[in-house]
Amino acid sequence: MRFRLxxxxxxxxxxxxxxxxxxxxxxxxxxxxxxxxxxxxxxxxYTTPADAAVIRDHPAFRAVAAVAKTRIxxxxxxxxxxxxxxxxxxxxxxxxxxNRILEECHAEGSVWLFDQPDHVWGDGSLSWLAETxxxxxxxxxxxxxxxxxxxxxxxxxxxxxxxxxxxxANRDLARLAMEGMHIHDAGRLWGSGTATVWPHHVSWPAAPxxxxxxxxxxxxxxxxxxxxxxxxxSVDMHYLARAFPDPDSLHFVRDSDDFFVLEVSARxxxxxxxxxPLTVPLIGSFAAAICDxxxxxxxxxxxxxxxxxxxxxxxxxAERRSERVRRGVLAYRALxxxxxxxxxxxxxxxxxLRRLLAxxxxxxxxxxxxxxxxxxxSSPVLGxxxxxxxAMLLGLVSAEPLPAEGPNAAGELPxxxxxxxxxxxxxxxxxxxxxxxxxxxxxxxxxxxLRLSGDLGTALTGSALAPPTLSDH
Amino acid sequence: xxxxxxxxxxxxxxxxxxxxxxxCRLVEAGCPARIAVLTAPPGMLELPLWRLALAAAALDxxxxxxxxxxxxxxxxxxxxxxxALSAVAYAQARIGWDRRVRRDAVSLLGVEGGxxxxxxxxxxxxxxxxxxxxxxxxxxNDIGHVxxxxxxxxxxxxxxxxxLALHPADRHATINLAVLMLRAGDPHADIMDFLGRTxxxxxxxxxxxxxxxGETAMAGPAEVHEWRRTTVFSYxxxxxxxxxxxxxSAEPGxxxx
Lengths: 473, 257
Fold this sequence. Notes:
heterodimer; A: about 475 residues; alpha/beta; seven-stranded mixed sheet; 19 helices; 21 strands; B: about 260 residues; 11 helices; globular
């Protein structure tokens, strides 16, 4: 298998970052030196003529070129002077180069080992990546941590060896990443008082210097590009879904001990934080508007990121917490779809449902990391309840999941409004507050999120209302 | 504020006047970051007005550290100028907010955040000074915004109310107070009552629109991208900057005395 380790860079700031930390981290013994000794790797830097001159003169470039076949490819524009617009100019330019790399890799049958000038590689990560891509023949994905350049780069330079090489083990790099976490990632940490409104990934603290991450949108690091699938915003966002339609075909990095790359960004490069914590409705709102089945499948995977050894019990606890949030997000997303449908058909209870979905006041959600299981009755019951007593629907938002085990069972669920919901399951019939809510075992299955059927369900079939299954436990 | 010919090196007053006109257009067009790429003679850097323009450029270009330096220089060159004080405060608020968010988050991961001076507190103090010098509803709105960023919701509410006492139709303070009420978890009836009693000079954010339309329990993110819990600065000092740049560009000889 052939590999092309490729990135584009232009402008003084990014070129300097690449020469200061990116190339030196690639020179760590278990990165490019090992990977190049085991695999056919070509290292290609796409840059402007002006920046190429600076790069060629730098010892880090010469050192990299001595380890692996390295060349510079010209890109068709010069470094933009001054305040270049990030979204209008920088991203489209980067995208154009990334599309070129995709086409060239496809043409020569090589795998693109994705790199950026502001990436820092943990020692061993590159060789692990090449080995994994060669073995699994999959697209390898990993949502890295964005860090504050002003904090992290000096730390890395302090650790540089006399020859300029930066050798940092994955765990040490993870520690550095958490200590110098950028506001971009800080706003996506569950439990913090401030969150972003764009939670494309979410992390749960597991222990000191350890967190569990789930990502709706993740970053491909080893790509064998299929024909005719171009990047829209680099290989972020929906590229993966278009290029590799089966999410199960992806190879998800699951532990930062295997692979860890951080990104350094200027401290104030982005700020989309909002003075409100992450809540299930907030993430669910994002998932309903932005994500499809593909991203939800990606969000099922957890990635352990840690700077030290963490007891398995702590990981398990964090996984359970994050799983409850994931289930809540799925339920919210389903209800969101229902709400949209009800509004479209002018259903009288749409407003009630909207109110239910919006219940993420800090007083209700902050300090309560448990997401709510949302119960949907089957369509006849829903119809009756919506027309008859909207309050019942509000009452169906439970603070606890419905126990799934056992053919015959009964119990009570605490509701958000302080009331309790009695439930009874006999055979395939589920009764809520003495009213029949479901009449088949299939509807009762899982966490109690029941699939709609009938007329209302017509517009809601498929992913929108796919309930969690028992296997998700 | 004027541009003095003695401070131009190799440029005429006409150049400086054109520069101010260009900068004014950029500020008014909402893209002051591009001021940074205008070619200015070295002497311009000594002018408080130009430093203020560069502070606006740096803030718009997501470089509050550079903005802070420019704004402080402008403040030192023109002591007691409320616009320069505001610019310093805006830069401090941006720096302080970043620090607060990151510190809150990393503390969950067991990472020490340090205990140095709080830029948000300093921003609030500076804005209070500016409001003493130049009492205005906009500056009290800004004080409220910074107080809210610091988590002092009571202080924020008092500042927004003071802003509205000075100017009952202040569009920023009106909406910011309603946003704050949402964030603080006030009963929605109170918010609706407030919106009903208040002159609205700007479009409400979607959540408040829903409330005003009778959607009595809206509190969460109905749609993605709605920053309904975020109050905003007034940017009064930037409008003042545009006004000063326009005046400087219109004066004979580029505003030279």
